[in-house]
Design a protein that fits this description.
Helix content is 75%, strand content 0%. It is mainly alpha-helical and 325 residues long. Helix 1 packs across helix 3, helix 3 crosses helix 8 and helix 5 runs antiparallel to helix 6. The longest helix is centred in the first third of the chain and has 47 residues.
Amino acid sequence: MSYKLFSIIYPKKIRDKYSGLLKYLEIRINPDVFIGFITFFGFGIALLLAFYLNIITKVNLFLLIISLFLSFEFLIYFYLNYKVDKKAKEVEEVLPDALQLMASNLRAGLTTEKALFSSARTEFGILQKELSRIGKEVATGKELSVALKGITKRIRSNKLEKTTSLIITGINSGGELSELLEQTSNNLKQQALVEKRVRSSVLMYVIFIFIAVGIGAPALYSLSSFLVEVLTEKIAIEIPQESLTQTSLPMSFSKPNITTQFTMIYTIISLITSSILSSLVLGLISKGKESAGIKYIPILIILTLTIFFVTRLIIKNLLGGLFGF
């Protein structure tokens, strides 16, 4: 099966974004094939879930298919962004130490190429692999500036890009490169301290959102769903049709069409949706990027659903006897 055919539904701009993410993650696969693959299986999963939810909730089938398909595609895209940002974060954490080591190697009398290659320590993780790659490329005849620019095509990091640009400028100008590297390392460490202080100052907002979404919302939903169940099943007002025809009341009475099953499905979907959106907001507040909040999605979903069902069970046991449950 040629998955490329399914990729044509995406605009070129979106396909280019997927292509860039795959390059950063070094996934050696044709971007159109990858996009077609997730489109085909995303539609299949959405179709199966939509038929199941349509039987339970009676919601429009076409609307369910579109909603589930778009949700699946957005999750894939955000997950890829999260992996790219995670890779960049790991590099940024060890970059100051690597620059400090490069500066020490240059002061020890090593050439720039050997200083870079000697700084490839195993504790640097991804950066160690990139430095080793740069050393091999330089050894095979590639210019150092070109090899350094290549690292920015594999890691999406503004800090790394600016640092690489400074190193290339220092090499071309023939200045004191060791002093430049050491100063850059100190600046990156100071910037990291400032970012930690900013994150600690917004920690209260993160805690408030987490409690409101993870604890407050499911608790209120459990109470409201129980009240809906009581009103729809136990407190049904039946007025004879003859009485309604003989009196001219400015109101009409009818049996509520909302079922307990519909209320439960609506509540679960609302809790899952709010958990996903709140996770993205948490990532934006704490890290500055929505993709950083993807790791909170499973935690919040499990927490909200657990608290919802547990709280509902407690309320039903405490108040169920009053209404004959």
